[in-house]
Fold this protein.
Amino acid sequence: MEGVEERQAVEAEVENAKSVEVRRQDFFKPVAREYEADIRVSERSIKFVKSREGVEGFTTLFQDRFKKIRRLFGPAYRGIEITSSSVRKEHFHGEELVLVGMVYEKRESKKGHVLLYLDDLEGRVVALISKDNEVLKERAARIANDDVIRVYGRVASNGELFIVDDFEWPDIRERVEQPTVEKEVAALYISDTHLGSRFTIEKYFYRLIKWLKEPAEKKEIAGRIKYVIIGGDLVDGIGIYPGQEKELTITDIYKQYERFDHFLNELPDYIEVVVIPGNHDAVRRGEPMEPMEKGLFTRDIHSLPNPSFVTIEGYKHLLYHGTSFDAVKSSIPGLDNIHIEQTLKEILVRRHLSPVYGSNPIVPGEADYMVIDEIPHIFHTGHVHRNAQAKYKGIVLINSGTFQGMTPYQIKQGHVPTPGKVPIYDFKDKRFGILDLNTEV
Ligand SMILES: [Fe+2]
């Protein structure tokens, strides 16, 4: 990947970056122009929008979440599968049992045991992880409220407590293989451009467009870019946080989108553009979010809901803005603002994009479309304004950075952005790159 900082996909338990030999061309001829686009939006993405009518409330939403995630566990590795109601009805004589429940509450008992209040569709079971089982107790530190977990163990002789000797999250159960693509095509991943903010650096757009059209050096990868995928927060919006108006250069939301549209139209015409909204965009705040109106853009683009599944060149992409990351980060120990790939991994482990109910609004309804019930090849997110590239069980994790510099809000929140660094994934060569727009390209 010439002109692009080379990155080897790293496992979430991270390997060192290796450089890859580059190939040069004598002249710039964008090969992506020669190919037809191959992009299919999942039917499911469309349902994200339709299913919000007939709201039944959060009970139906959480029941649907529980049912969907329970199916993702696969066969239990041992024990008799039971539900909460059978704990009291049957007499199990110390047999090995398995139960799937949603964590209503986790707390520590006076004696130092971990108590898990687990709900299923029939009722509640109190499960106990002994303080003497130190390894399990340490793993249990990562259990958050609303997690759907499967516990292995026995019912105590008083018939009331479920004594846990192992537990698991649904997780990604089999390693994901990346498809083989013959076409020399690649995608460029952007998010959080925040047009309209006075901290946004428009120079990045000019450099990106120049790089795509006439790179300073002959860069093969620039000519392979067939897709630009944008993970939300296209504009800064208005009224998103108190005092925002002082930090805007464009105070009309339509004018903010006009500015964005101007840059969209500057991209080469053979490039397909996919966008989803973020929490700053002109859609309802609760997730799932409807797609941004097509009328905001004069270029013909794919405007999809947040989240969405879309298959590009055979690579199934899960696109999600990342509004839940703040709640996830504060509920699971060991996550921070730097190693974003660890947050993405915890979300995949739980098979839910917004596993912790709390600070970020979700839309109640009869179906939970935030469940990750299909396994993607690429999981692309944004929101935290910091790049991450890693692999988890073969799934490519990409958090695209931002075109916005550090804001006073981010300083307060302890965010450390990586502005102007744009991730690239080359489908043919199955490798990462980072295009750094902080220097001339
Ligand atoms: Fe953002």
Notes: The chain has two domains: 5-55+175-436, 78-168. The longest strand covers residues 97-108.
